[in-house]
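Deliverable D5.2: sample structural annotation.
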Amino acid sequence: MTIEIAATSRKAQGTGASRRLRKANRVPGIVYGTGEATMIELDHNTLYYALRNEAFHASVLSLELDGKKQSVLLRDFQMHPFRQQVQHIDFQRVDAKKKIHMKVPLHFKNADIAPGVKSGGIISHVLNDLLIACLPADLPAAIEVDLAGLSLGHSIHVSDVKLPKGVEVAGHHHAADAVATVQVPRGAVEAAATADAAAAPAADAKAAAAPAAKPAAKK
């Protein structure tokens, strides 16, 4: 399902114009890419709630600008330092025939049945998203990572992640990079160390209390 967002072009630029837009519950933005960059404005509340949707950040969006639709990607947005207010947003036009690079969220499943978890381990998510390259039509909203076979002390690596058709890993990721691992809980490690430390003096005392071996009788 395509996510749609509406915008109108704007001519007024500069700090003062942007401040007036925000007071009117509008968000200044820009659309760039193929062709000329276009200055736009959007309804704040509609955009604010759209940004809370994970798919809005990793999908090809349908932007209706002045009555005409175009395919875009969300590339950046700025929030107010302490208010729940979107300050600015950037979209990039996409070409259906050219590959795009996009961060896609990872969705982990079957953690509850992983052998490492059943043994008392805790799942640690090393990566929460993956930078991929693909054609716009092949862009997944998320990538699933199956943890069903993960044992205690072991990891799932980038090379183990099953990618959808037409999608490849891009950017700085390496095949051997860990995506998720099952770790022994810190409390269990500390408890074991404490038990070992307590057992050591007791063992030494027991050894000291043991009677010395009698020398063999001379014949």
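Annotation notes: DSSP finds four helices and 13 strands in the chain. Residues 189-196 have pLDDT under 50 and may be disordered.
The annotation will be released with the project's public dataset once the embargo ends.
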